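Now for one record:
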Amino acid sequence: MLQIRDLIWGLLFIGCAAAIQVEITPPQGEISVGDSKFFICEVVGDAKDIDWYAPSGEKILPNRADIFVSRSDEATSTLTIYHATVDSAGIYKCVAKDGDKEAQATVQVKIFQKITFESAPNPQEFIEGDDADIVCDVVSSPPPTIIWKHKGSKIQPAKDVRFKIMDNGHLQIRSIKKTDEGTYTCEARVMARGEIDFKTMKVIVNVLPTIRVRHPGVNATADVGKSALLACDADGFPEPTVTWAHNGVVLEDGDKYNLNEDGSELLIKHVTKVDEGDYACIAKNKAGEKTEEVSLSVFVQPNITYLSNQTASEFDDQVILTCQASGDPTPTISWSFGNKVFTEGEQSLDRNVVVRSHARVSSLTLKNVQFTYAGQYLCTASNSIGQDARHMYLEVRYTPKILGSVTVYTWEGNPANISCEVEAHPGASVVWFRDGFQLPTANSTNMKIYNTPSVSYLEITPDSQNDFGSYNCTATNVMGSESKEFLLIQAEVPSSPVIQQVEPFSSTAVVKFEEPDSMGGVPIIKYRVEWRLPGQDWTGKEEDVEDDMTGITITNLKPETTYEVRMSAINGKGEGESSQASTFKTEPVHAMEGGSGMGTGAIVGILIVVFFLLLVGVDVTCYFLNKCGLLMCIAINFCGKAGPGAKSKDIEEGKAAFTKDECKEPIVEVRTEEENTPNQEGGGATEPNETTPLTEPDGKTVKDDNTKGEAEVKNATAEVKTVPNEAPQMNGNESKA
């Protein structure tokens, strides 16, 4: 068996030695698209030609760009495939020839596509709410399996229906949210080769801007130099830019407008009416843009644009006053004259005043013109922003009107003024007449005329009864004339007042009375009241007249005494007759109720006791604090107590000086009230007497009005003052209380 096998191998070796053999290395090849690879064809035996053939059977010629053939030596040839494509796949054949001898070998070249990410943009941006298609285009042969991951976790569409892996490998997220933002991984796998590759990409979710207008409507006042602020706050991702537009024109920072840093606030300076309207707040980012409008309402304060003075004549049918005003809102126009206010419609019962308004114009119609219509009229235009008011003057031309009292009282020798008050427009001239003769006449030396712009005064000092009577005042202007008679009447003394009641008290009484029936033509200036004990002389007093005077008080009456009282009135001419005497009796002096009242003596006694206790308190304080005072004198003279120190030579004059603990502190000097000599130290002050007030320790003055109490404690009163402690000191036995 062994011999047969060896024989076969021997025969084969002999046959091969005679033939050509071809071998390709590597025997097979797999090339990824785009890669390059070479194959070596080795020939055993002599071979003159070695050629390579493409899968199409076409001989591969040298110098091709994609496939290159080169012969290294007599026995080898190399086939190089550059940047392989799918078309490069197939069976390549290497043929060796030597004359009639020929041998060949083949190699199968497989072209495969490795995992290649053709399109996987990073980052990928989407708008919130849209259906997002996250692109991941992968090619390979065979086609890969695509797996998506988010934040390291595999996305499982079965658990979240918003996620779906498309046939093309893309990841679809329906109604993408801001929370879906983050890093996504697109992983491709080829199971046949165990190949895996991945791409990470950032997914950004942009949020469409939202605008929150702070105030949808902004009000401003025009022409007052103020500014208006419009504001809107924009949110979104990325942060939106904010611009403003008005009437389609984008507004820029400048003299008229100011924008803050992020554009959220627009300041309109020096607002005028033309600035009114809608302003667009525009917020824009990658997700899009949003627009909201802010309305600016510009209000205008009222301004009266037309008002003029008017002239009319008395008894004209009517005069119309016109007032025109601008403003927004449209102002309401009203009229006023003095304290009267006129608004829309009929304004008087007689229908002589009518107000009519239309739009921005108001008219005030005054019918049947009277001279009282003349004067200053006020037109007021008002709206919710403010008001404007202007005056106009209505001039009414009318005949003179004479005013004033027609009756004047006086007496012989007393000058009196007859006043002729004239109202007229234009101004009037005034003339006085009596009995048809213009005054003053050559014989009327007791008459004088004084004129002012509105009043003419006729001053008369009656000499006799003939000067009393009628006087005529005539006023004339271009519109006509007016006359009026005035009477100068002889004045009389007033009649007597009427005593209604007397309210008596113990020492006073109030006399109640009524005014006299006749004043005598001139005002009462005083009342005289008189009283007496029956059968004795009258005692009286006069009191000036006061407003609403109904009573006079008489004083210094005796209790439980009967009096008579009477009254008279006094005017400029003199004193009138006295009234009938009225009798009254004063009241007795009543003690205080319950017997608890104290008499004057008791009050004085209490004050004396209080004063004495106060002096004792001061003396005790001086005794313990300064070793001085009345108690100290008693202790030294009667109890044998040693004095606090040597006394000065002034002791003989009623003065005692003591030093305190022999130190340099002030010395207390005690003086009795009996001393009346001047201060030896030249102070100039007189010594205290019975009218000198004492002081309590807190500085308050203690006063007692009762001289008797002061006399009782006079000898116990002391004055305390300080003197230099260098004062001469005397022997303690010489002290004098």
In short: Residues 635 and 641 are 5 Å apart (CA to CA). The domain at 116-207 is CATH 2.60.40.10 (Immunoglobulin-like). DSSP finds four helices and 55 strands in the chain. Residues 7-17, 646-737 have pLDDT under 50 and may be disordered.
